[in-house]
Amino acid sequence: MRAMRAENFSGYQGLKLVELPKPVVSDGRVLLRITAAGVTPLDHTILSGQFHHSKAPLVLGNEGAGVVEEGGGRDFPVGSRVMFFGPYGAFEDGTYSEWVAARKQDLCLIPDNVDDVSAAGIPVAYLTAQVALTRAGFRAGKTVLAPAIGGSVGNAATQLARALGAKHAMSSTTNHAKAEQAKALGFKEVIDTSLEKLADGVRRITGGYGADIVVDGIGGEVLSEALGALASEGSLTTLGYSASRKTTIDVTNLIVPQASIRSLNMFVQPPAAITDAWNVIVSLLQSGAIKPIVAKTFPLAEAADALRYLVEGRPFGRVVLTT
Predict the structure, then answer these.
(1) What is the pLDDT of residue 240?
(2) Does residue 89 surpass a pLDDT of 90?
(3) Is 123 in contact with 85 (CB distance < 8 Å)?
(4) Residue among 120, 126, 111, 128 at smallest CA distance from 159
(5) How distant is the alpha carbon of residue 268 from its chain centre?
(6) pLDDT tens digits, one per residue of 27-36
(7) What's the confidence (pLDDT) of residue 90?
(8) Phi, psi dihedrals of residue 223, rounded to the nearest 5°
(9) Distance CA 60, CA 4 (A)
(10) pTM for the full model?
(11) Distant-in-sequence, close-in-space partners of 160: CB < 8 Å, separation ≥ 6
């Protein structure tokens, strides 16, 4: 089978198209013919040698969509379309491949109204966003800020919060063109930080109240600025670092409102939390209340270009490989 494998973690040039044996199904594994694979910032982190838990050579890709070929049992009969996320592409070979032997517990049936390309970009973004909202105590009527409307988690958290009854489901962008694009797509509470500061935008939208919950997948200065937007006893969940791993915070932004900051690592979440999140996400997908946005697709052999486009092009929506 064909796979895009990182022969070493030296950057884009480390990715090579190789021929590998088709996976053999073992207990608890399901053989999937991959139809599409999501491209994520974690893939770039690993490929650039900044994720020290991965070992080369390694087929990247920790989310994807595919068709069950063997081992799915009654829950996932042969021919079922599934989407999934897990340790793939980080701790074992992943979805930048034509075939994967995935753990049955990681699979979720794709709703009939969602195509495979869209489904491939759902797991990481929407599972992460939903788990983060749940852990932060989200309920209808809360105000939520998820920076980076064009990014994966930022967009997913904004859509989920809005669909689940948030009083305000806010996001942001540093790019005026993206702000206009977001408005055209129906996102009415997007703060254009080329025109105003993030915290000022949150206060404007909420009438001075602030954000009960911040879900931040950006890090760097965005995290620092988002802390200044928290409402009384609000919380910020940090779960990404596409802007920077380092930030400087004003501790009074935590002390004065008695706010809190927490972290989220999806690789250590209990199965029950993932199942609960999938149940919410699938229901909202079926009703059309949330809709994944795909910016561009690339063929499998152009995985390096896809990663470069994600990291350097900073598109509005997901980047997906097709096999």
Answers:
(1) 92
(2) yes
(3) yes
(4) 126
(5) 16
(6) 889 999 999 9
(7) 97
(8) -60, -45
(9) 7
(10) 0.96
(11) 126, 129, 130, 133, 280, 281, 284, 290
Report the C-alpha gap between 12 and 39 in whole angstroms.
Answer: 13
Amino acid at 177: A
Burial environment of residue 272 by CB neighbours within 10 A (0 to 12, 13 to 18, 19 or more): exposed
Torsion angle (degrees, nearest 10) of CA 241, 243, 244, 246:
-90
Q: Dig out the tokens for 55 from the structure.
A: 């070992």
- 3-state SS string for the chain: CEEEEECCCCCHHHEEEEECCCCCCCCCEEEEEEEEEEECHHHHHHHCCCCCCCCCCEECCCEEEEEEEECCCCCCCCCCEEEEECCECCCECCCCECEEEEEHHHEEECCCCCCHHHHHCCHHHHHHHHHHHHHCCCCCCCEEECCCCCCHHHHHHHHHHHHCCCCEEEEEECCHHHHHHHHHCCCCCEEECCCCCHHHHHHHHHCCCCEEEEEECCEHHHHHHHHCCEEEEEEEEECCCCCECCCCCCCHHHHCCCCEEEECCHHHCCHHHHHHHHHHHHHHHHHCCCCCCEEEEEEHHHHHHHHHHHHHHCCCCEEEEEC
Q: Over range 208-230, report the average pLDDT.
A: 97
pLDDT band at 118, cuts 50/70/90? very high
- One-letter identity of residue 66: G
**226 CB-near residues (< 8 Å, 6+ apart):** 145, 147, 198, 199, 211, 214, 216, 236
Two structure tokens written together for 188: 């009415």
Q: Terminal CA-to-CA distance of the chain, rounded, Å?
A: 11
